[in-house]
Fold:
Amino acid sequence: MKFFVDTADVAEIRDLASTGLVDGVTTNPSIIAKSGLNFFDVIAEICDIVDGPVSAEVAATDHETMLKEGQKLAQIASNVAVKVPLTPDGLKTCKVLSDAGTQVNVTLCFSAGQAILAAKAGATFVSPFVGRLDDISRDGMGLIEEICTIYANYETFETEVLVASIRSPNHVIESAQIGADVVTVPPSVLRQLFKHPLTDSGLEAFLSDWAGSGQSILGS
Ligand code: G3P
Structure:
């Protein structure tokens, strides 16, 4: 399973990337606006930090302009994945960019039918938003199960399921149980995955007992 970090906070990305556990980054217009940074500058900086795919989303809604924006974004760095919304124009743009060798992340996916269209359009990734479905009492993880089951039926579907809108470590665990290819997580969720109180208390006990032994590994 690949771990992408869902943020444009460069300091967070740099810190988490140092763990060796970060395989890519996703952004969207809201995340970029929240950063207050220049879009091209921040995507270029992130692409320097992380070798894996870095999603940068178009802002247009018509195919012609989406294509121009996507081609411009793809020139920032070789690891840019152009993000397009799951609309007729978005998938038209996905097909052209994908056929030209550009990675495409089709976002704002909320149904299995939409995910089938994204795969047929040659998407590199499809981003179903599980948290936003849960937020309206729908079954976000149920959608992931549906999509993974459908994709497994067709060898020609090479699109990776990139679980997005993740709210908790349980979304990550359930995504792994289902067999999703990628999760994109807020930095806070990635940090929560490390934590367990028994790990903390167990380590504290080990260190206390070791200190009592009077020994030193490096001093020996
Ligand atoms: O990558 C998509 C993700 O940023 C959406 O998350 O929390 O706005 O639903 P959220």
Remarks:
- Residues 197-213 form the longest helix (17 residues).
- The mean pLDDT is 98.
- The pocket of SN-glycerol-3-phosphate is lined by residues 6, 26, 28, 127, 129, 131-132, 164-165, 184 (CB under 6 Å).
- The chain has one domain: 2-212.
